[in-house]
UniProtKB/TrEMBL annotation:
Stated name of the protein: Methyltransferase
Lineage: Bacteria, Pseudomonadati, Pseudomonadota, Alphaproteobacteria, Rhodobacterales
Keywords on record: Methyltransferase, Transferase
Pfam families, per database record: MTTB
EC number(s) recorded for this UniProt protein: 2.1.1.-
Length: 513
């Protein structure tokens, strides 16, 4: 665990304690290890029906691998029926191919204490991914810039409950499309020491990601270890485009992880029914994971499920709904039956502001992820407006609430200390526990403590400006950025990364398409 602290003030115990409370303390909690059961909504009969129907989709309807002759040839050699760009996969073949994918893997960070294990009963939390817009209290809603991107990376680095730096936390539109991945990777590698994600917007950008990691970690280390996770979306329904599959091919060949994730808005890209959507999700994931194993057996992958429903009046996606929760729970069961790590859920909401709607929908979405057995939660903080906006204030609101997930995941201890029988005997009928020995020994760690929300008496709250949560969050954003300290990185590595980026940028003209 890395800590950056100011020098502790000298003097009496009170002064020392005050100095400790005001010191800069950068701490990252270990990834979540669940001690609570997964919430399962499908019985054995329902699971078997969905699995059988998914095999029917693959065998009879098929999936499209577009503009990718090499992929078609791989499938043909594996025993699939290929007609034009349609691939029909015999029953059982995709599942057999998926069996070589690991059930869990370690993604290494440059700070080894912040490496994460993805799979099993673990959950890794990563920030929002992909919005072209940002919003904050000062500038309102606007197109994202590289400066915004760097601020989000710094906030993620300083957030205790976030285990991962993420990927495209916002889309820096002031940098050419063909070059911005270099700046984004540079930010993750130099401004943070947490794990991060690679680029997937073109196969050559995925290759750049691998080569930059070879500079950061060393070629041999990258060859033998997983240092990146990437997001490979499927164009639902049942279409695998050459851009995403090209990136997947690069990462699989280099033993780097990919999240194979259908992108589904129910009623538009999948059936309106929960069971029908789960069937399509499973078919698409089976085909995508199987393809990764055709490229390289044993390549690390994650079963992804990004699902929202649709507002039938406006056509806009909706979040925090019961249907999305049921699909998330069911997909978790299907992922575990495949023995694969599972990605889903996040701080999803459709609100335009970090208001009550955002809070309700986000709370529903975060809690369903914990209970569904999610192993990798992308979008765990900062999501607004259906994913179009990364919001600075909501980022720190959500990041604070991620501590609740850590607390819930611990479950209920029943050891001697937790039973508290000595305390009950000491206090007896009619007393109070504030001063008893058990309380004094445990009060610092007994309860989760928010670093954002206000629990002061009304009079104190009013004297301090009657600030609402949005104002408190805005102050916290400013405080975190003001106290940010860049993690150490070898000067040789930093210079080599900068030289690589400069050379790559100089090798091609700017393109904003």
């Amino acid at each position: 665990m890395e800590e950056v602290k100011t020098r502790r003030a000298r003097g009496g115990g009170g002064a020392a304690r005050r100095a400790e409370r005001t010191a800069v303390n950068i701490e990252t909690a270990k990834y979540i290890e669940r001690n609570i059961p997964n919430f399962e909504v499908l019985n054995e009969e329902a699971l078997e029906i969905i699995e059988a129907n998914a095999e029917t989709i693959l065998a009879e309807i098929g999936v499209n691998f577009v503009n990718n002759p090499a992929a078609l040839e791989r499938w043909r050699a594996a025993g699939a029926e290929v007609e034009d760009e349609r691939v029909r996969i015999p029953r059982g073949l995709a599942r057999k191919l998926c069996s070589t994918a690991p059930s869990q893997f370690t993604q290494h960070a440059r700070n080894s204490e912040k490496s994460v294990v993805i799979g099993g009963r673990n959950m890794v939390l990563a920030p929002v991914y992909g919005p072209p817009f940002v919003r904050d209290a000062q500038g309102g809603r606007r197109y994202a810039t590289m400066a915004d991107f760097e601020k989000f990376v710094k906030l993620a680095y300083m957030s205790k409950w976030l285990h991962h730096s993420g990927g495209t936390v916002c889309e820096p539109t002031d940098i050419p499309v063909n070059k911005r991945h270099l700046d984004m990777l540079m930010a993750h590698m130099t401004l943070s020491d947490k794990p991060f994600m690679g680029s997937v917007t073109a196969p050559e950008r995925a290759q750049d990601s691998v080569e930059m990691c070879e500079i950061l970690f060393g070629k041999e280390f990258v060859r033998d270890n997983t240092v990146m996770t990437s997001l490979v979306n499927i164009n639902s329904p049942m279409t695998f485009d050459d851009i995403m599959m090209g990136a997947l091919e690069v990462y699989a060949a280099n033993n780097q992880a990919a999240i194979i994730s259908p992108f589904i808005v129910g009623g538009a890209m999948a059936p309106v029914s929960v069971a029908g959507t789960l069937t399509q999700v499973l078919a698409e994931v089976l085909a995508g994971v199987a393809y990764s194993q055709l490229v390289r057996p044993g390549a690390p992958v994650i079963f992804g499920a990004f699902v929202s429903s649709i507002d039938m009046n406006s056509g806009a996606p909706t979040f925090g709904t019961p249907e999305a929760s049921l699909i998330t729970y069911g997909a978790g069961q299907l992922a575990r039956r495949l023995n694969l790590p599972y990605r889903s859920a996040g701080s999803f909401c459709g609100s335009k502001l970090p208001d009550a709607q955002a809070a309700y929908e986000t709370a529903n979405s975060l809690n369903m992820g914990l209970l569904a057995g999610v192993n990798f939660m992308l979008h765990s903080c900062g999501w607004l407006e259906g994913g179009l906006v990364a919001d600075f204030e909501k980022f720190v609101m959500d990041a604070d609430q991620l501590g609740v997930l850590h607390g819930l995941a611990k479950g209920i201890a029943v050891d001697t200390n937790a039973q508290a029988m000595d305390a009950i005997r000491e206090v007896g009928p009619g007393g109070h526990y504030l001063g008893c020995a058990h309380t004094q020994a445990n009060f610092k760690s007994a309860f989760w403590k928010s670093e954002l929300l206000d629990y002061k008496p009304f009079e104190t709250w009013e004297e301090e400006g009657a600030r609402d949560t949005y104002a408190l969050a805005s102050n916290r954003v400013e405080k975190l950025l003001a106290t940010y300290r860049q993690p150490e990185l070898s000067q040789d590595v930093a210079e080599a990364l900068a030289a690589y980026v400069a050379e790559k940028k100089a090798s091609m003209p700017d393109s904003f398409m």
